[in-house]
Amino acid sequence: MTVHINAGFDSGNIRLVGIEGDRIDLEIVADHLSDFFQWFHFRVAGAKGRTLTFRILNAGGAAYAFGWPGYRARWSSDRGNWRTTETSYANGVLEFTRTIDSDVTWFAYFAPYSMERHHDLIARMATQPGVMHLQLGTTLDGQPIDYLSLGNGPKQVWFYARQHPGETMAEWFMEGLLEKLTDAGDATAQALRERATFHLVPNMNPDGSRRGHLRTNAAGVNLNREWHTPTLERSPEVLCVRGRMDETGVDFAMDVHGDEAIPANFLAGFEGIPSWTDAHGKKFYDYAQRLAAQTPEFQTELGYPKSAPGTANLSMSTNQVAERFSAVAMTLEMPFKDHDANADPEFAWSPARCKVLAHASLDTLACMIDEI
Question: Which residues are catalytic?
Fold first, then answer.
């Protein structure tokens, strides 16, 4: 049978270079109007019973090639369970081998979260009691920018995700967050809804998500460098969301992301903003410490360096939101690899574990919501 490689679907990304026997040579396609690339997502048909070796030849030119060592590619035959397969990186080539045991098998950088699943999530959550949906605007490709709100407490809490579309773990986290917040039998969630109003944007970058981008929108723009001066021409997604924040105010904010290199979950704060005070920063540090105590799926030892005083980049959302609203703002980073402090050799970091961390994040917030 002929082996077929295809990425012509929602969030797909790969280019076939050539097939020689059981070796498949591939390249990742760069984001439109951008040099960023690293996300891949493709399917293989016509290979049942064969052991194939896949080589991504341009992996060395990826945006974060230093993240490939120690990484394991994901595969699935049902698009529901995504397991890891042995993967190596050498001389700029990412290589993984798999015995194909089904008529169609999918491979991806991380478990995908398609725009169709996004719309299913919006449809499911918008019908839940007490949930309000708004379309804040449209993207450059004409897709809706979805926003959900629930709760009636005085604290204004924002969670927003997937500014970088290839970081699909971010929307798995948001799905878990929404499931807990709308669970009528969850006492913690119900208490939070009485003490806070939640504002949630599950996907900040629908265009990049559907196009199979790693980091940018339809204009090749990194949305997390647009928060100082967003425009309709370059970054309508940020303009709409920041505008809604201006209407509601922000007391607590979490921007949800994924990190290519660090094998752990961690938080980045807002050190270096012009208005930094130790009292303001202590609330962020307290949240991180409490989250680490709440779940083995989080830690505080590994993470990004802190910005020096006065050097924070205000084009990034966490810094802009902390400065603009005096909010307790933070960026959550989840791994493409695994959370090594609590490793899973079969699935590595996974959608199910994203949801566990989302639940723990809300449990932690509930313990300190009145202090924020």
Answer: 333
